[in-house]
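Input/output pair, single chain:
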Amino acid sequence: MTTKIQLSPHELELVKNTDWILTKHIITKKVYNMFGEISNELKDEIEKNNYLFPENIQYQSGKISKGENYELLPYVILDYPAFFWKDRIFAIRIMFWWGNFFSVTLHLSGTYKQKFIVASAELLSFLQKNNFFICINENEWQHNFEQDNYIAASSILLSELEKITEKKFCKVSKKIPLAKWENANDFIINSFKEIMLLLQINCPAGKINPSPESPKAGSGL
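Output:
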């Protein structure tokens, strides 16, 4: 006998109402436009700090993508700049996660992590002063700020930073709640500039030679 699927009164009201889903599409489009404008603003910062990036940064523009199911919720992502190889990653990821936050994340692995992330009192002080979180998870494709994924840099000692940065990858991130939507643009731009300064702590000058292998446009979520 087939089970009859029932809807709760709240579910029934939602399934009859098109307004909320149409509003979702409008909001997502606005985030897309916002990320497009931010991508243009970031070009100046990238040009000023061009020596920090793989040389083919000059051929790349920001990549905006979206999905419907990160922990069952929609999201929009701007990766810029972002280089994904099998053995190394250099990416700055800006994320809108429905119902949660905007975040800005520096994601490094392989030779890029070795180049830029050296646990030091200076690096820890910078992360703490600028309210960054650091990833402690073994899964580098998790983006939530749960306690098993990110911890505040202000809560750790140098010895703990040294242990955390022994992993094959390093991610540091900041977030702003959606309730502060009007401040999100400035937050994203300022956080990006802070990441530029972070990269210069261990790499004040020089250039990274790009791999002859073509980078992938994206990886993971």
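The mean pLDDT is 90. Strands lie at 63-70, 73-84, 89-97, 101-109, 133-135, 150-152, 169-177.
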